[in-house]
Amino acid sequence: MSATYLPPGLPGPAPARDGLDAPFWDGLREEKLLLKRCSDCHAWQWGADWLCHDCHSFEHTFCAVEPRGLIYSYERVWHPTHRVLAEACPYLVVLVEIPEAGGVRLVGNLLGDAAQEVSIGQAVEGVFEHHSEGPAPFTLLQWRSV
């Protein structure tokens, strides 16, 4: 069994070219979940856009939140989206709502048996999955039931 949930050989994520989401990826490497918050109206949002979706301010910061949330939606994936995933199917992809961050939603994999029962509103916690192989190491935020 691999030390990571996903098999090796997948292309790794990288910060956007403008670098706006770099604090998010840097935080994951340090096992912290950092999400964007408006400095003016304090609204949370993800993705990391330049402009606040609520008040249109350009002032923002990345704040640490507990990697805990509730499953908002999920899909059991049966058809690989990349050749490396052919042997990994089926697997579970979840959309997790983070109550502490104003309901921001993040996508990740639900760890464990792909046949497990999953329900909307199910509590999950984040698991930081480090990938040190390849030219650009990265960390993913995966999820497990609590």
Structural summary, described in words:
The protein has 146 residues and is mainly beta. The protein contains 1 helix and 8 strands, in the order αββββββββ. The protein has a 5-stranded antiparallel beta sheet. A hairpin with a 6-residue loop joins strand 7 (123-131) and strand 8. The longest helix is centred in the N-terminal third of the chain and has 8 residues, at 22-29. The radius of gyration is 16 Å and the shape is globular. The relative contact order is 0.22.
Number of DSSP helices? 1
Please tally the β strands and state the result: 8
Radius of gyration: 16 Å
Helical fraction equals under 10%
Distance between the termini: 23 Å
Largest beta sheet: strand ordering? 6-5-4-7-8
Class per helix and strand makeup: mainly beta
- Bin the strand percentage: 35-45%
Q: How confident overall, as mean pLDDT? A: 93
Q: Report the order of strands and helices.
A: HEEEEEEEE
Q: Which ranges are low-confidence, i.e. pLDDT below 50, for 5 or more consecutive residues?
A: none
Largest sheet: 5 strands, antiparallel
Q: Which term fits the overall shape?
A: globular
In short:
Helix content is 5%, strand content 38%. The chain has 1 helix and 8 strands. The relative contact order is 0.22.
Labels describing this entry:
146 residues, mainly beta, three-stranded antiparallel β-sheet, 1 helix
Write the layout of secondary structure elements.
Layout: H1 22-29, E1 33-38, E2 44-45, E3 60-65, E4 68-77, E5 91-98, E6 104-109, E7 123-131, E8 138-145
Antiparallel strand pairs: 1-2, 1-3, 4-5, 4-7, 5-6, 7-8
